[in-house]
Amino acid sequence: QVQLVQSGAEVKKPGASVKVSCKASGYTFGSYGINWVRQAPGQGLEWMGWISAYNGNTNYAQNLQGRVTLTRDTSTSTAFMELRNLRSDDTAMYYCARGQGPMAYWGQGTLLTVSS
Amino acid sequence: DIQMTQSPSTLSTSVGDRVTITCRASQSISSWLAWYQQKPGKAPKLLIYDASTLESGVPSRFSGSRSGTQFTLTISSLQPDDFATYYCQHYNDYRWSFGQGTKVEVK
């Protein structure tokens, strides 16, 4: 069965960076892209970006361009999301989700807390 | 960027009621729209894609429709398990955007 397993919760100080992983199993990793979606406490869903697991092509949300980088390691079927220059309003649950269109499979989420 | 405007933000309703949630796109998006259900502390669950195709395993009381740039999620007879927050999502050309969400709560 398709599974996306994310790395554990993180606590970071403002200005720091974080790198979250998303390990895929149960399907051919290179056949689907991976999206990253975040959700601030009590707020809605925000699409952050997408990476092709096949060739590494990326698209980023305009408001995060320059602070976020998506990468993948095909040898371990793992996707990564790095967010730099963290601010308090980056505190959120971060999800990876498989899909080229609709997102049928999601990771369990990684809670990032940014606090001094 | 395409904006998705979802309404209402909150819906107070009862078991057995027919529920309708609307999402309007700022420009034509063909039928590239999905609906998700999210419960507290959980990842979203895909309900409908391509505006009206029911995801496998989703109960048939959920349905989706399109009229131009307006999209509708209908729950024909609300069940206790359906109290949750619902989001629409546009997808096309490797870009995605979500509506603001609709919380379906107990009246």
Could you explain the architecture of this structure?
With 116 residues, chain A is mainly β. Chain A contains no helices and 11 strands. In chain A, the strands form 2 sheets. In chain A, strands 2, 4, 5, 6, 9, 10 and 11 form a 7-stranded mixed sheet that branches. The model of chain A has no long low-confidence stretch (mean pLDDT 97). In chain B, the strands form 2 sheets. In chain B, strands 2, 4, 5, 6, 9, 10 and 11 form a 7-stranded mixed sheet that branches. In chain B, strands 1-3-8-7 form a 4-stranded antiparallel sheet, with no helix packed on it. Chain B has no helices and 11 strands. The model of chain B has no long low-confidence stretch (mean pLDDT 97). Chain B is globular. Chain A binds chain B through residues 33, 35, 37, 44-47, 50, 57, 59, 62, 95, 97, 99-104, 106-109, and chain B through 1, 32, 34, 36, 38, 43-44, 46, 49-50, 55, 87, 89, 91-92, 94-101.
Question: What does the secondary structure layout of this molecule look like, with pairings?
Answer:
The complex is a heterodimer of chains A (116) and B (107).
Chain A: E1 3-6, E2 10-12, E3 18-25, E4 33-39, E5 46-52, E6 58-60, E7 68-73, E8 78-83, E9 92-98, E10 105-106, E11 110-114
Parallel strand pairs in A: 2-11
Antiparallel strand pairs in A: 1-3, 3-8, 4-5, 4-9, 5-6, 7-8, 9-10, 9-11
Chain B: E1 4-7, E2 10-13, E3 19-25, E4 33-38, E5 45-49, E6 53-54, E7 62-67, E8 70-75, E9 85-92, E10 95-98, E11 102-106
Parallel strand pairs in B: 2-11
Antiparallel strand pairs in B: 1-3, 3-8, 4-5, 4-9, 5-6, 7-8, 9-10, 9-11
